[in-house]
UniProtKB/TrEMBL annotation, chains A, B, C:
<protein>
    <submittedName>
        <fullName>Amidohydrolase family protein</fullName>
    </submittedName>
</protein>
<dbReference type="Pfam" id="PF04909">
    <property type="entry name" value="Amidohydro_2"/>
</dbReference>
<dbReference type="InterPro" id="IPR032466">
    <property type="entry name" value="Metal_Hydrolase"/>
</dbReference>
<dbReference type="InterPro" id="IPR006680">
    <property type="entry name" value="Amidohydro-rel"/>
</dbReference>
<feature type="domain" description="Amidohydrolase-related">
    <location>
        <begin position="192"/>
        <end position="391"/>
    </location>
</feature>
């Protein structure tokens, strides 16, 4: 990331707070964004843009407010405006006008290239038709390679939608995992959205799986996995196949019962699952619990993606809390960006800045050496993802 | 609030930390205290005073300690002592001696007038006979107007106590709401104290309400609403009448099961209620969850009142955490002061100081513009309350 | 603790942040470590050492990581290395080499003596054969006296293992408490590990206790108390005997369901127990809830021991959060050190440093007087423990 110019340097205003060596390392390290989605490939209107920077709501943004006046909105106006040639802190209207004048591909290139990412690990399972597939993300970002994550519940739904019978589902699912395996680096469960974590995580037998599928198909509408048996089945199969499992935890949209997405409720699963890498994603406001689990189980790691962007300036404290108990080998970087490419850029920038402020204070106080700080950055930003996904 | 003099200036000691323009704005802005109670109108003894600065306990303060040696006690000795002509940091004994020498009305005037409040939105439902009614609060504060909030559970109890039959309760309650409507700006539920939030929030029909009232009356003692059906009824009726609903959340006295007052447990209600403004009050230590809900639902807002006073110097971090995910249009200021007028003053002072420190750091680092900081102050301190209550 | 030399002064690097008087007081105050265990009395290998600085895991530390690269590991390399004559921030390998060259007794003396502890209050109930008993801890620390805490569940298990019949258990347990009483200053329950807190805390009658013991004995293996009835019995008996009760809360190893060790779930017990001192131990990440309970109940106090060590540099924020709502008479200091004597030393050092930073900032801003800061240190570090245990 660029240094010096206060409009775009991620360490602008922090000369006294972040030691130069650490800032320089954080500017230059090329991150693995281990949980990310594509960018919008079509023009969107302002309402869609504002909705896309509001995690959680399915209400339209009301007329008496704008998402530009919120933590993420302020961060976009501060850090993304200069990328579009605007002054930091422009108004939301001015930001929108400049953004709306650009083609989606142009926007994407402007934000993806300076993000300083060495690899995108892409979750393609959500609204996949609105946004770019991995190969296009690679192209728009100037050749940054992409790896792919397979959404587990979606596979079950697509198999059943394509006519697989409930009785055949278990074998068909295993076949699909086997077939996908060469092309993916891991899997993801959205059990948080479908059944919550306070369920029976025992590995179900095939008969139980078939019965759960049967019951699901008996309901009107497209097949939608929302039974614990099916999520548990999918997760245990992925683990049995030796595939890493990402788990959506905490912060998400309001369909989700946030308190039932507390990672502590995963204990029964973590105690019995085959010890493949389990990656707890987002985790806010339960990131302390996630750090505790990452310390307690060799196979568990976590990130605070998504929340870094949404908290804006407060991402510093979030990153600090994420540094509390887990060894540095057990935490990863992600943006969880989806849609506006601002989010792919901003996640990277805010994480670097936050790490600089958190670690910088400890280095200045003599509590950490510069070497330790650099190693923590490299582990969390790059190497842990390389290890857990075998990149 | 007064500037310069380090004994009473809310930004004393923060010259390097809070930009002058921001400090000046925070000194002068006249707040809407959107959730507050009256002040003591009779002299109290020291035990009663100490009890009134201990939220939660029903034990008497034991002989081996004093509430003056706690976060709120330190804040009172620091910030309220100068208002009584004492030096900052006087001992608890000296503070008490000076305070005890003044009449309640004199005390009230000394603290209410410099609080910098433009309007009190008063909850009159709790221990209403010990403290001043709204019109007296207005008088003591030099003409600051008051608006009134109606306690929902109390209306049910008073209707039944006055002889309304269970079968007549639903209509009588609706009639009372209709009658109260011109005189109030909103309503409040204390379901947190009565049934907790992990209950059925479906809107009950009148027959169910009557049966719940019948059951309550069959018990000995004065009628006390503690069934989910009655709280749910009252809340849905208030919403159907288009009235804002305040909800006590989190921090409160020990009668309350704090973990059953987690705002996430309100999800089933928030998903179905008529979208009138819902104001989550206090929220500590679940204020992050409250901010998340305020982001996820257009009709939900929150505050961290009560806790600001109780945390004393730590109110800075609390206010910081409250700035994490909610748009600035979704947070409000309140003191939740009750009894000693010190609390009406201190809530206002600590909030200004905390906002100055939190926003000031971001402005100094170049992450926020001064304009953004001022706008966030105005929204949270004044304008959001004006909008949600139609003041 | 030593001043000046930046390699070992706990306030190294903080000249501008901690007022000299406060730093000097914090260097010299002799603490009561109110919850601590013995030190290893036999040489251990590196794997055992790394395991002993990983709370929670029962997995071996995997080859791709080291606990030296984590918050506690960094703190050991920074603060303990100089005690062994090494430079701060040595590598984990170098630290291990120096440590491994020393005898256990030598190691213990080096770390225990400069810990600045006036009294160890020792929990002897866990893996008591691997580590030093209280008298040896006293000897190794140069004569610092020890007091003893009795583990409640262990007494039941040992009585039954020694042949006490279920029917005789209640009387035998009471007799053991009476017999132990002159030799102990308090008791401890590990209900968190055995039954969780979301259980029936009613005081069971002797018949219920006998039945629970009967049922336990009917299972294969050594007797292991894991029924709520037995823990509730033990706790109520200890309280009836006037003995303080320590309660393991929150942070612990992964056998524990952390979310079922939330102190709020103890409300039903706290509301009915004889009001002996109840000490909530550790509490992370529920320390805010613990502070709330300490404020709400005269007989409840808490600490953030164990977590202070595990959070390393982040112990500052932890100590800050622990200062939020509880009066200063309701919090205690502990290290919860177990095994490596580094932990006995580091807990003390990090607590002093954190208190210096937290209180120092408030003093510098004029929010607290130096006297108030010193009094809070003395209460939390020394006097509260003296009072609750009658030392």
């Amino acid at each position: 990331m660029p240094a010096g110019d206060h409009t775009i340097d991620p360490f602008a205003g922090l000369t006294d707070e972040v030691p130069t060596t650490l800032a320089d390392h954080l500017r230059s390290v090329q991150l693995v964004d281990h949980h990310v989605h594509g960018v919008f490939d079509e023009p969107i209107d302002r309402a869609a843009f504002e909705a896309s920077i509001n995690e959680g709501s399915t209400d339209p943004v009301p007329g008496w407010m704008t998402m530009f006046d919120g933590p993420l909105g302020v961060a976009i106006r501060r850090w993304c405006a200069p990328v579009l040639g605007l002054a930091p802190h422009v108004s939301g209207d001015d930001y929108w006008a400049a953004r709306a004048a650009l083609e989606p591909a142009d926007l994407a290139e402007r934000f993806l290239r300076p993000a300083g990412v060495a690899r995108w690990v892409v979750d393609t399972g959500f609204q996949g038709t609105l946004i770019t597939p991995p190969e296009r993300l690679t192209e728009l970002s100037g050749g940054v390679p992409s790896s792919e994550i397979l959404r587990l519940e979606l596979q079950i739904e697509s198999l059943l939608a394509a006519g697989t019978s409930p009785a055949d589902l278990p074998d068909a699912f295993r076949a699909r995992l086997a077939e996908a395996r060469p092309h993916i680096v891991g899997t993801k469960t959205i059990a948080a959205y479908r059944c919550g974590f306070d369920v029976d995580w025992t590995r179900p037998d095939d008969r139980t799986v078939a019965a759960a599928a049967e019951e699901m198909l008996a309901r009107p509408g497209a097949p939608r996995v929302d039974s614990a048996a099916l999520s548990a089945f999918a997760v245990h199969e992925a683990a049995a196949a030796g595939l890493p499992v990402q788990v959506h935890v905490g912060f998400g949209d309001r369909d989700l019962d946030l308190h039932r997405a507390d990672p502590m409720l995963l204990l029964p699963l973590l105690r019995i699952i085959e010890p493949v890498p389990v990656l707890l994603l987002h985790c806010y406001p339960f990131h302390r619990q996630a750090g505790y689990l990452a310390q307690a189980f060799d196979h568990v790691s976590f990130d605070v993606g998504l929340a870094i962007n949404y908290l804006g300036s407060r991402s510093v404290e979030l990153v600090g809390e994420a540094m509390e108990v887990a060894p540095f080998a057990k935490q990863l970087y992600s943006s969880d960006a989806f849609g506006p490419p601002e989010l792919h850029y901003l996640g990277s920038l805010l994480w670097r800045r936050a790490m600089g402020l958190v670690l910088g204070a400890w280095v200045r106080r003599g509590e950490w050496s510069l070497d330790d700080a650099v190693r923590a950055v490299d582990l969390i930003g790059v190497e842990n993802a390389e290890r857990v996904y075998g990149l």
